[in-house]
From TrEMBL:
<dbReference type="InterPro" id="IPR001387">
    <property type="entry name" value="Cro/C1-type_HTH"/>
</dbReference>
<protein>
    <submittedName>
        <fullName>Helix-turn-helix transcriptional regulator</fullName>
    </submittedName>
</protein>
<keyword id="KW-0238">DNA-binding</keyword>
<dbReference type="Pfam" id="PF01381">
    <property type="entry name" value="HTH_3"/>
</dbReference>
<dbReference type="InterPro" id="IPR010982">
    <property type="entry name" value="Lambda_DNA-bd_dom_sf"/>
</dbReference>
<feature type="domain" description="HTH cro/C1-type">
    <location>
        <begin position="21"/>
        <end position="75"/>
    </location>
</feature>
Amino acid sequence: MSKRERKKEMPDFCIAFGKHLRTLRIEKELSIEEIAFKAGIDAQNLRKYELGKQEMKISMMKRIADAFEISTSELLAFDKRG
């Protein structure tokens, strides 16, 4: 089994949510660094979320929603099918 095959496959939701995060950030004309700073997280982790390479805890969603100055409900209001 290769390294690539051993990697955990990410749920479609994580990939779609990551795309949504990136779109939202671009629409608001904010950099990854700006959102990461406001959320109190590392920019590298935010990149992983945007690329759908890392699952996110609900508490992190709250911090990111706060950084965007929107509610968690608004953050989650997107087409989950990707």
